[in-house]
Description:
Layout: H1 3-17, E1 25-26, E2 37-41, E3 44-47, E4 50-51, H2 59-65, H3 71-78, E5 80-81, E6 85-89, E7 92-96, H4 102-121, E8 127-133, E9 138-143, E10 149-153, E11 159-163, H5 166-172, E12 174-175
Antiparallel strand pairs: 1-3, 2-3, 4-5, 6-7, 6-12, 7-8, 8-9, 9-10, 10-11
Helix pairs in contact: 1-5, 2-4
Amino acid sequence: MDSVDKNALIDFTARWLSQFEYAPQSEELHAMSSPCILKTDQLTVFWRPFLLNPPRDLTVVEKIVGITLQPNAHVFYGTQYAGNMSAKFADINLTLIQAWNDDDFSNLEQHLIAHLSQQKRLKRFPTIFIATTDEDTTIIALNNLTNQIVKEDLITGQIITLADDLMSFLDKLIVRN
Length: 177
């Protein structure tokens, strides 16, 4: 695993966590088990990221879709389990997608397979989504050909480069609650 990208993800996660007095909390995640859970209070779960050792990878996605993914795609999704994290990049509000547990990781793999298969069918650049935005048809993704982080319009296929790589992107994120 690329330790530079792993460290950038862990550093952003630490910056994001520092906004909470105790720990992030979620009502959405309370019914799902996870190694991230610190405690549950009625319908609220308090959580911390859980570092995966050994890390997970996306080789299932690679085999089914028939492409090799950039190493930092494996790092982004295989380093930790966590809740999704809100942030801002320039004027873009976004939510970094993270897997919550093993089942969620499997769901993530299925969504990546569907996304990459659709891109292949449409003859578009292969991208690996890493964040949602406030716009329903726009995602933040890793361009699998260039390793750049891009803003991608899912309807038109238009991509706009945001950062040269995952580390640069994560380092420039502004924490948002």
